[in-house]
Amino acid sequence: MTAPTAALVELAVAHGVATEYWDWQGKHVQVSSEVVAAVLAALGVDASTPARAADALAEHRQARWRRVLPATVVMRAGWTPWFAVHLPHGSAAEVWLDLEDGGQRRDIPQQNKWVEPEWIDGIQVGEATYQLPGDLPLGYHRLCARIGTNPEISVGTVIVTPQKLEPQNLRRTWGWVLQLYSVRSRRSWGIGDLHDLADLAAWSANDLGAGFVLVNPLHAAETAGRMEPSPYLPASRRFGNPLYLRIEDIEEYGDLAPAERDRVRTLSLQTRALSEDATALDRDTVWAAKREALQLLFGVRPSIGRIAEYGAYCDREGQGLTDFATWAAISDLHGPEWSKWPEELRDPSSGPVVAFRNENPDAVEFHCWLQWQLDEQLARTQARAKSAGMSLGILHDLAVGVHPDGADAWALQRVLAAGIHVGAPPDAFNQQGQDWSQPPWRPDALADAGYAPWRDLVRGVIRHGGGLRIDHILGMFRLWWVTSTESPTEGTYVRYDHEALIGILVLEATRAGIVVVGEDLGTVEPWVRDYLKERGVLGTSVLWFERDADGRPLPPERWRELCLATVTTHDLPPTAGYLAGDHVDLRDRLGLLTRPVAEELAVDEAERDSWLNALRERHLLGNADGDVERIVEALHRYVAHTPAKLVGVALTDAVGERRTQNQPGTTDEYPNWRIPLGGPDGLPILIEDLPNNQRLRRLIGTLSI
What we know:
The structure is a single chain. The protein has 705 residues and is α/β, with parallel strands linked by helices. The chain contains 20 helices and 24 strands. A hairpin with a 5-residue loop joins strand 9 (139-147) and strand 10 (153-161). It is globular and about 80 Å long. The chain starts with 5 loop residues before the first helix and ends with a helix. The relative contact order is 0.11. It comes from Kribbella alba.
């Protein structure tokens, strides 16, 4: 390993790239110059030699002087930030704001601040300083400047965000945490769908008093070839997965011709039989059947009202929907991996792509139509949850990133880093680190785009829900960029403008009236949780990880109030399996441990025993009580005793499931994201079975929320 030179360190710092960090064991780690150079290359900066690094640093220093206005200024309501205008030395500038609502502001005073001019490309460039007013309305505004008599107008973006997210409907409540695809009914086609979700929400609210249902990301997956099972490795985060559609709920179903309706019924009967299989889910078989049915429904001529509603949806989603549908249509012909398409189709703005769209309008429109159907069913699902009495309704989940060959990676190439993967450095539960294979946002490109890709993504996910969980929200502060396909330990952190990313999130959440939960587990810089609290973003507390400074179980009264509190997480086995040490056995079988299994089991047993002792000390569990069901109930009662605003209960815990849904660090070595909901006897549990499940009722009865 070669240590970075002083010049390389300075260049890295200028671009937010860490050259050193502290690992999960408190050890100081020096990042190699090779890793730093690789990360800078992904940011478009050539630091391959000392001379090129020096040139890149000089170019970086001059770049801001070449720009008349900053690309984006993000401010909070009430703030009065200064910004620079660069212009030929001695020239005058006219500066104003075009507001989001169509108004205009010209009260943008120049400040009495002298900055020495710089010679840039043979021209002496001056810097004038202006101040934005503190009473600007929330929203996205256009910053404009005209230099002297030049008719050309330079533009930037000003984003005004709330100081804090303050949802009106946030009161203490409990809700389910579940993987929707695994929660099936006798009417679903072998995969849990949006009608199942609406039914579960309505029953849980009316019968059990639940306030929300937190589901896995419902993001779009591949619609051609093998469907990626992980909801956290989607083709697109902005758009949804039509696998979750309930075919019979589509309005045009009633207008199918008799023969077509018979065919749909046959497909339904064939796939419903899959719900009796408790071993593994079969997305590909289900999607093949649903796609055939959806093609038949797409051919039904809708009413004039439906045509108008579909047109309005397409207008609202704009070019983003067109790009997504184009990717899907090309995938149907050439496969889902766009990096293997004919070269002329790899650029979404190329002439051949436009020609393909014009020559295949029905193929593209089919995928637009699928997204409209999803939008309608998501809206109905949230409406049913709210009308049943849920204070929040459906809480959606936002994955960290996207598949490198998916729709977003194709359509948003200009704002994603190529040749780099998002991951995580080693920690206690993933000692070899993690490579999530997802291309990260480029911080510089996001700012140049006025953060529009991030804004559009957030709007799409939260449109029909009462809340949003952000997976790995720490990635809005810094992300682990993996530079090697060999090992996720070969990487470093890259900084993001958290004030911009969190600010836009808070702005969109305020407008939608939802709550936001940040998954802030893992290696957390101390100030980050304070910042999220300041902005009104709830944290995440998982019982197994909540310990005090001495490593003892954290007493419930000391837990955070502004958080979602749970016993477990989807990256661990359900609690019955965790108590049995299944996670250690599984990681040992898969070769994921970095210390001897006996040592790992001893540490794990000591940690579990400490929690059992904490339960007994608080009289939540009898001294001789070793029954797994009683222990699971006691752990949930412990969480219910915390002040947490939201208490989540894994549906798997309620029915006694033991199998883990996901084992980080694996792909096909374990059937991740393919485990259907089952009971302790190994038999499948369907939604219709839940009202009479006494184990479930006993667990919920312990919460007293």
